[in-house]
Write a structure and sequence with these properties.
This protein has 23 helices and 11 strands. By secondary structure, the chain is an alpha+beta fold. The chain has 4 domains: 2-97, no CATH class; 111-319, Orthogonal Bundle (Transferase(Phosphotransferase), domain 1); 323-447, no CATH class; 485-550. Strands 1, 2, 3, 4 and 6 form a 5-stranded antiparallel β-sheet that branches. Strands 5-10-9-7 form a 4-stranded mixed β-sheet. Strand 2 (136-137) and strand 3 form a beta hairpin. Helix 4 packs across helix 5, helix 13 runs antiparallel to helix 18 (404-423) and helix 14 (323-337) crosses helix 19. The N and C termini lie far apart (74 Å).
Length: 552
């Protein structure tokens, strides 16, 4: 029943902040009766406030404060929304942007208490300085400035106390809603909501373990160790535990502070394109990508404004793809960029993203119908995120299921495009991405790379050589067994056919016998006629009838 209690609390918060104002008067998604019922449901929760003074807050602020009160699951949703300025009203996007790193902080227990409990020593022995007031406060954790005894400037990240139980309650509620939608709606089944929620559960609970974030940060730092486009801070492992993380303090400009970036004469076009390049590098070269790249986690170095570089923090959520998903994704993106809808259809079917029984021509036609009007615009005016959503809706008509392994990637791509367009509205993500994908495809097909893969797999194949005779024997045995089974099935089918044929003959014979009896019953009537038929002739006729009935 805890999920029901959480649902009641969610409804109460929705009513408290009057979020029903966001419901349209009419919509295709909900019928008017359903809208009315939803608003009536909220009335009991709003009654205590009806007689109070009118709420002067605008609805955007009410939505942001409701998300803060609802907790981390909803705050993260608001963070994603805030990056999509091509979808949202500008004022709403500005309001939600404060969810990135301006969530109300906690004061009890103190950061010193948390550090001492986790590390088992007094904070004074570790730090020359540890600020009580947080530098930034987010949905799951908050960060404090500090200085180690060796004068290294660091930040101390601590998990919000009690946050795990709140997240568990929200996830239980989401699972319950997902199970209802999957049981009673086709769209719920197609979206595989239970799987999506289960995957998100792993991600967000992983975010509560700062040792996982530390490992992710170290790996990402290693991947870009010699890069001049992305810097990742150093982890101080001696001071890191499950609920405490100590990192090198970075100094950069928040990526959303475009005024400061312009004052420094940062090349915003180059900066936006570099962000897209970093994304594709992580996905297709490293297969290890930062999956929480909202603006609160991204800073810009001020060292080289003409060729700017990024600084990434908060590596709690990291994504990776299987080899098959990685390959199909790249090929699909290339086909979409080249407007090769036949190839898109073939790849969707080959990958199993749509059923094998899908009509290739119909699917290709549907994709062309959606994409061609969009591609009539200049590429720089086309939102990649919007196009993907249109394609998803179209593929959904062919029973395409959500691929949970790609959910994080889709979310990250939305973040990247929203961030890039915010920096440089003229960003042509297609122009930036296409050469990269073509290069990836050429590298994959390069004979030297193919030879390298063969060399890489050769030891595995050599290890299997001693097992080959046994494998051949097993295969031969299996083939022999299959042959015997096939012969047995053929014999059974022949026996069944013979039985069926006997039943058919018996059925025919029964009819003929009945006809014979009927004929003999007429003998007295035609006795005079039969008297004139020779006995031999009559005998031959009866013998023919006998043979017809009983010898066929």
């Amino acid at each position: 029943m805890s999920h029901l209690l959480r649902l009641i609390k969610v409804i109460r918060i929705v009513a408290k902040h009057r979020l029903d104002d966001f419901l349209p008067q009419q919509t295709k998604a909900l019928k008017q009766k359903e809208l009315t019922a939803l608003r009536l449901l909220l009335i009991p929760f709003r009654l205590p406030r009806i007689f109070r003074s009118t709420d002067k807050r605008n609805r955007n602020r009410r939505l942001r404060e409701a998300m803060e009160e609802l907790g981390p699951v909803y705050i993260k949703f608001g963070q994603l929304l805030s990056t999509r300025r091509d979808f949202l009203d500008r004022n709403l996007a500005d309001e939600l942007q404060s969810l990135q790193d301006n969530v109300p902080p906690f004061n009890s227990p103190t950061v010193q208490n948390i550090v001492e409990d986790a590390l088992g020593v007094k904070s004074e022995q570790l730090f020359k300085q540890l600020d009580i007031e947080p530098l930034a406060s987010a949905s799951v954790a908050q960060v404090h400035k500090a200085k180690l005894q060796n004068n290294d400037e660091v930040v101390v990240k601590v998990i919000r106390p009690g946050i795990e139980s709140t997240i568990a309650a929200d996830l239980k509620l989401l699972k319950w809603i997902a199970s209802l939608l999957e049981a009673y709606s086709n769209i719920g089944k197609r979206l595989r909501l239970i799987e999506v929620v289960n995957d998100y559960e792993k991600v967000i609970f992983g975010e509560l373990d700062l040792q996982i974030e530390a490992a992710n940060t170290s790996q990402l730092r290693s991947n870009f160790e010699n890069s001049d486009v992305l810097y990742v801070p150093k982890v101080y492992w001696n001071y890191t535990r499950k609920n405490v993380l100590v990192l090198e303090r970075i100094h950069g400009i928040p990526v959303t502070d475009t005024d400061s970036l312009r004052d420094l004469k940062v090349n915003l076009k180059k900066l936006a394109e570099t962000g897209v390049d970093i994304f594709f590098t992580q996905v297709f070269e490293h297969n290890f990508f930062h999956a929480d790249m909202h603006p609160g986690n991204i800073f810009v170095s001020s060292e080289n404004p003409k060729s700017p570089s990024y600084i990434a923090i908060d590596c709690a959520i990291i994504g990776s793809l299987s080899d098959d998903d990685q390959e199909y994704l790249a090929k699909n993106l290339l086909a979409i960029f080249k407007r090769d809808y036949r190839r898109v259809a073939e790849l969707h079917i080959a990958s199993g993203w749509v059923p094998k029984t899908t009509n290739m021509h119909e699917f290709e036609f549907a994709m062309r119908t959606v994409c061609e009007p969009i591609f009539e615009k200049p590429l720089k005016e086309i939102s990649f995120g919007q196009l993907l959503m249109q394609l998803f809706r179209t593929a959904g008509k062919f029973d395409m299921e959500v691929q949970p392994s790609l959910v994080l990637l889709q979310k990250t791509l939305l973040n990247i495009e929203g961030l890039g367009r915010q920096l440089y509205p003229e960003l042509d993500i297609w122009k930036t991405a296409l050469p990269y994908l073509e290069n990836w495809n050429n590298e994959r097909l390069n004979p030297l790379n193919l030879l390298s893969k063969i060399q890489e797999n050769m030891p595995k194949w050599i290890d299997q050589l001693p097992n080959l005779p046994l494998l051949f024997i097993n295969a031969s045995t299996q083939s022999s067994k299959l042959s015997e089974i096939n012969k047995s099935l053929v014999r059974q089918q022949q026996i069944a056919e013979k039985k069926l044929e006997r039943q058919r003959r018996l059925s025919r014979n029964s009819g003929l016998l009945a006809l014979l009896f009927a004929a003999f019953s007429l003998i007295p009537v035609v006795s005079e006629t039969l008297a004139h038929i020779p006995a031999a002739t009559l005998g031959l006729g009866l013998l023919g009838v006998y043979l017809l009935c009983f010898r066929r």
